Amino acid sequence: MDKLTNATPTTAPATLDLGILKESLTMAQRNGRACVQCGSSDYPLKPAGMLLDVAVVECDSHAWERDAAANPPTWLTKPCPAWCTEQHRGGDHPDDRQHTSVIHSTDLLTMDFENFGSPTKPEHRPVSLMTDLVQGHLEAEPRICLNDSTDKGTSYYLSLAEAEEIAAHLLQLVAAGRGRTAHQGEDAA
Ligand SMILES: [Zn+2]
Ligand SMILES: [Zn+2]
């Protein structure tokens, strides 16, 4: 029985003077070229509704803030790990409830290029090998996902220990391929 607090509106107070707010806008904000909240003109800018007769826009982070406040990810049981770049929503499908990092991508320039266009409009580009961290919101530890930029490849999910082992093998092979093992390299230094 919390009727008093529930009765208090938590969104836009009715006393807000939109006229004063509109007067305070810069020319860029009035013309839809800058965020109505912070004045940022960084792309992307998204429609943020009308301020009286002015169609205003807002920057990505303010659009996200407003959307998240209206639709918070209540399924999140703890804060995101520091590496997560995901913008979680309350309505995220259970399969999408995972933390993801930035994606590291390397073009494989010595391999045959793939046609990323169509048979009639070919667009030949190198295949990229991509790695990123992923963790389902209830999983104990993240894994590293390894896949390529084609849609026919397999995605490999490596535990952190497995990824560490593979990374060490790669470095050993690189050192050997360059005509020096890691140990010889250390001796020479
Ligand atoms: Zn903004
Ligand atoms: Zn997250």
Helix/strand layout:
Layout (H helix, E strand, L loop, with lengths): L2 H5 L10 H6 L3 H4 L14 E7 L2 E6 H11 L27 E3 L3 E4 L6 E2 L8 E2 L2 E9 L6 E6 L7 E3 L1 H18 L4 H7 L1
Antiparallel strand pairs: 1-2, 3-7, 4-7, 5-6, 7-8, 8-9
Description:
With 189 residues, this protein is an alpha+beta fold. The protein has helices at residues 3-7, 18-23, 27-30, 60-70, 160-177, 182-188; strands at 45-51, 54-59, 98-100, 104-107, 114-115, 124-125, 128-136, 143-148, 156-158. It folds into two domains: 3-70, no CATH class; 94-158, no CATH class. Strand 8 (143-148) and strand 9 (156-158) form a beta hairpin. Residues 1-9 and 185-189 have low confidence and may be disordered. The structure holds zinc ion (2 copies). One zinc ion (ZN) binds at residues 35, 37-38, 40, 58-59, 62.
Which features does this protein show?
single chain; 189 residues; alpha+beta; 2 domains; five-stranded antiparallel beta sheet; two-stranded antiparallel sheet; 6 helices; disordered N terminus; disordered C terminus; binds zinc ion
